[in-house]
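Below is how a single chain appears once it has passed through the pipeline. First comes the sequence as given, then the structure the pipeline wrote out for it. We keep one example in the README because the format questions we get most often are answered faster by looking than by reading.
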Amino acid sequence: MRIIGGSEAAEILTMKAAIQVMGEVLTDLARGEAVQSMRQVLPLQEGNLMGLMPGYLRREAVAGAKIISVFPHNHSLGLPSHQGAVSLFDASTGSLRAIVNGQAITAIRTAAVSAVATQLLARGDAEVLAIIGTGEQAESHLEAMLQVRRIRYVKVWGRTQGKAERFAEVMSGKWGVQISAVESVRDAVRDADIICTVTASTQPVLFGEWVKPGVHINAVGACRPMDRELDTTLVAGSRLYVDRLESAVHEAGDYLIPLAEGAISSGHIVGEIGGLLCGSGMGRSSELEITLFKSLGLAIEDLAAAHYVYEQAVLLNKGIEIAF
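Resulting structure:
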């Protein structure tokens, strides 16, 4: 069995590679070649939780699961909010092949899925990006959006202005793009063509009256039925896509709360990203339409990313091989 740590996983799983891998596995999911169960969530104290996400990739003959902790307030301690591991089993023999750092996988694959959605749904001329949040996902989403659109200007907002300013300074130097820290979400999104919400908020931080026609939104942060980042007006006025319908109707507060309010119907979700990749659904229908991708994160995404990392680690002799 091979153990692959966070630094090696992040080195191997480049954003470019992750975007390709996520496109392939979401296509497999839509075609029935990737299978998963609903995640199991164990609530802990103070809003923290443990999650178990099992799945099976038929084409790769790999099964496994991610076990992850989600501690939203860890940022104040200088720790990541998401930590864990992905296990990989040979689906033919049942033998354990690898354990891969889950934090690195989550950080990269989440943004890569948003990139796939953005490729499919954002206007081709999108060039102004707004990032709401300043944590790990803010960094990875910036990189991902730069991969799929010609971004010329980025605005970032965070609850702590100093963190937003540091993010702007460091990331603008790293990527060679103009980034400004702004004092309000409204300022960040006013003229944005693409918006990524990557916060730990449980209440709306983005409101429909603030965004312009034609924007594409990746809503990433909220992952429980009672939590949301977007207000009802925005969701009701958007063309809504998800990574997995089954997950969204059980877990996505951004969808479930407006549904409970009667603002939208159960048919408000247009389709899955995998369906668009397979050509079985329709994407953006006009330049003025607001498109919304609600991301929850899927077990098969973690497995596909970990399987790619494992195969490359074997080729490159990375990680630690142990008897188990």
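The chain has two domains: 2-106+300-321, 123-297.

See the next section for the split statistics.
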